């Protein structure tokens, strides 16, 4: 019995002697794996931090790029308007010049006839006529006739002189306007080149930015940040709004308003955007540079670049109603400006990192997004 117990004890001791190193090795292995995982997690966290920082820097650069594009695009529009104005003035001057030349020809013909009449009548010594024994009534008629001819000639000469002066002034103005036209055309060409360069720089920035948003999670996170940023801006704008008696809201205009720009609906209100995020407005695909018009009378309460939405303009329409216009190429109004319905407030663009031109459009009532199709004509 004792030998059997001793035998079992020996086997157990042997098992413990061999098993203890195995348990220690397993523990060390698991500790090493844990350290390795912790190291990988730390690296991933650093990578995420670096990616986030890089994304922020690229967003700041994108803002600069798109603000530069907005500035040049606005200048291009102003130059085009000036070109049209100068061209119209030049056409008006040319038209007036043609009228003056016809008038000059008519006046010259009239004066020529008057001079010919005076020549045929011959020269008269009015003193002799007065001292002659002719009938005084006849002499008086003759004197009145010659005085009339003389006055007519003087009038014709003065009118011709005025016409010639206006023609000279018209010619000088035409030269001046032509010089302006040439300068504006050169300026527009220079602005177009600069716009092209700025757009090229923006494209390079977007390419780098997209690398930091390669994963679905990063893209979703970015959309959540952008949406929160927009909500914060609109909430602040709503608090700052002071009701104006001139702004009557949009309640009475349901289904009667025109869309802010002509285009096709590429994203609908309420449609899924990414994950649980839905569209709070609509996207209208439209040509870059096309006019964006205010849907109704309003006051500009925000006009600046906003992450994810680019160049954004917000109008207060009164009674808690606001309309928002995003992804613009350029904003043509500033905060505090009063605008009329149908007035151009911005230009269609692709700001906010968009690859295709279009307009992001929202209508909100007391801070809550509502379907724009409820208010704009279908």
From TrEMBL:
Pfam (any one): Peptidase_M23
Annotated M23ase beta-sheet core domain residues: 279-372
SUPFAM superfamilies documented for this protein: Duplicated hybrid motif
Coiled coil: 27-103, 150-240
Record flagged with keyword Coiled coil: yes
Domain of life: Bacteria
Protein's UniProt name: Peptidoglycan DD-metalloendopeptidase family protein
CDD domains xrefs: M23_peptidase
Keywords: Coiled coil
PANTHER family linked: MUREIN HYDROLASE ACTIVATOR ENVC, PEPTIDASE-RELATED
